[in-house]
Amino acid sequence: MANFTTHLTVAVITSTALVMFGFLGGLFGFGAAIFCLMMGVIGGLLPDIDLETSIPAKRFFVLISLFVATLSAILYTTYEPTAIQLTERAFMVWCVVFLVMRYGVIGLFNHLTVHRGMIHSVPYMVMCGLFVVHGAFYGFGMTAKLSWLLGGFLFIGAMVHLALDELYSVNVLGLRLKKSAGTALKLFESKKPLRYIILYIIVLLLFLYAPEHQPALNSVRVLIQAWIQKFAPHAM
């Protein structure tokens, strides 16, 4: 499998190229471009969160714990504006939530997952992308178009990661496959049918209750047609 540096480098290059493609073509503004770039890079590291000892796993777990703890503390101060010793209580909330997330929820996650298991699969990354769409649209009030673009960039970054892992599973010099071949870019595992059925049901429900995806698709289609018309006018 590819190492952390390779995944990070390729994720940054791919995401930057796609963001520039969209930004110069008028698909989104500068602020949205930065968010899309971030999602692409995160997606490029996301599949390795099931490897507890990996660099992306360690850093990702700490960052997500810090984010949830800080958000919880902010929400506490919002709902308890007149509480006595508010700062001290908010700090206690922050500490408790951080410890629960880092050593409780995430600790259980590490215990239940196996590297290159279900997380290293296409439907799992689709689910993660759809969670981003829902979070951006329903949680942060972003437009349906931008929400789908953010989820799309996360998914593309993740697919680049899985494709790299599959590429590294081929011994080019010996023209043979390594034992890890087929363990990254997969759609289903016959040994875990129930888990994958549940996963596909979740993906279907997330898609059905997601915001309208047509604006994002139309914008991307128009962008591609514009670029083709610009560089290959006779191709259309």
TrEMBL record:
The keyword Lyase does not apply. The keyword Transmembrane applies. It comes from the Bacteria. One of its GO terms (molecular function) is hydrolase activity. Keywords: Hydrolase, Membrane, Transmembrane, Transmembrane helix. InterPro entries: YdjM-like (IPR007404). The chain crosses the membrane at residues 20-47, 59-79, 91-110, 122-140, 146-173, 194-211. This is Metal-dependent hydrolase.
